[in-house]
Amino acid sequence: MGKKVHIDGVRAFVRGTPVFRARDVEALVGDRGYALLMLHNMVAGGEVRRLTRGWYTRLDDPVLSVFAFAPAYLGLQAALSMRGGWEQETNVVVVTSGKAAPGTREVLGGRVVVHRIAPRYFFGFDHVPQGEFDVPVSDVEKTAIDLVYYGESPGRDVLRAAVRGADMGVLEGYLRRYPPAFVSKFRSAAGLG
Questions:
Q1: In the chain, count of helices (H) and strands (E)?
Q2: In this structure, are residues 141 and 95 in contact, taking their beta carbons and an 8 Å threshold?
Q3: Burial class (CB in 10 A: 0-12, 13-18, 19+), 122
Q4: What pLDDT, in 10s, does the model give residues 2-50?
Q5: Model confidence over 67-91: pLDDT tens digits?
Q6: 80 and which of 36, 86, 92, 146 could share a cystine (Cβ 3.0–4.6 Å)?
Q7: Taking the model in full, what pTM does it have?
Q8: Spatial CA neighbour of 112 closest among 155, 78, 162
Q9: Residue 123 is part of which domain span?
Q10: What angle do CA 92, 95, 100 make, to 5 degrees?
Q11: Reduced to 3 states, what is the DSSP secondary structure of residue 43?
Q12: 184 shares its domain with 154
């Protein structure tokens, strides 16, 4: 009887959250081995999917991987796309100040590109609705800066359009956090003189 209560409790938990960790299930059932076996069986049965090591979801959206790399936000071309400034299909791009290895990975059938950023540059994002949940996405100002910072501008016109849509006071405030050499590089790339 006890194991039935556990699986029902875990299923209720899974229905109520977009992303969860294996240790969350362990806390619910009180046994690591049983939690891992339960997750294995739930993955095999198609009830949940593995996002990354130790992270799971009931949904089928690689955008959710941003939670597995926390602290993180969706940035660069993915942010432009989510905010309506880029109409081409793009990979999920996660910017994290955590210890994740940078690079590209397959997550839920999609490509996820992970970039690391120094904690002092980890700012400038808010939460944007994505289906039934909200995800952290860089704002227009930080997206423009990150495009230059990572050398991934999708084109001078796109970068300049992003800057035109930016709040210049916010953008200038953000730029004060960067070294003068980068600020000069950004201003040149963005057509700000």
A1: 9, 9
A2: no
A3: middle
A4: 566 588 899 999 999 989 999 999 999 999 999 999 999 999 999 999 9
A5: 999 999 999 999 998 987 677 778 9
A6: 86
A7: 0.90
A8: 78
A9: 62-190
A10: 100
A11: helix
A12: yes
